[in-house]
Amino acid sequence: MSDHKYVAFDVHKSTITVVVLNLEGKILTQAVIQTDANSVRHFLCGLSAEVHLRLEEGTHAQWLYELSRRLVSHLIVCNARLIKSRGKKSDRLDALKLAQHLRAGLLKGVYHPKASSERLKQLVHNYDCLTEDTTRCMNR
Questions:
Q1: What are the start-end ranges of the E strands in the chain?
Q2: Measured between alpha carbons, how far is 98 from 53 in angstroms, rounded to an integer?
Q3: What's the rounded mean pLDDT across residues 67-89?
Q4: Exposure of 8 by Cβ count < 10 A (0-12 exposed, 13-18 middle, 19+ buried)?
Q5: Residues linked to residue 123 through DSSP beta bridges, in sequence order
Q6: pTM, whole model, 2 decimals?
Q7: Residue 84 predicted with pLDDT over 60
């Protein structure tokens, strides 16, 4: 049977709180890493198993999605507001709860386009702006 690790990131501007669970739900690792590409890559590459990663939807979600999608087996970006939390709240507890939800299969992902889709979206937006400006100038 293959070894699975369930990783949850609670992401903030300068730090990421990480919790890693095994297949049985035991905590293997708890860490706080910097929110930069090298730290995230180094942490994920250090996990020797089939890694299931869970990120929260937020300001860093697209960047982390692009950075980590090739480094893990399964990646879910989810809306953490849909998960009800009771009792005390901390970054470590949030990450632990999200890792447990990931392990139990209770999380549904939100769509994140690949970089090529983002480029196309940007080009379509620019085309729309040019068309509107041209129409405005011709009407003057």
A1: 4-11, 15-21, 27-34, 50-56, 74-78
A2: 10
A3: 76
A4: buried
A5: none
A6: 0.70
A7: no
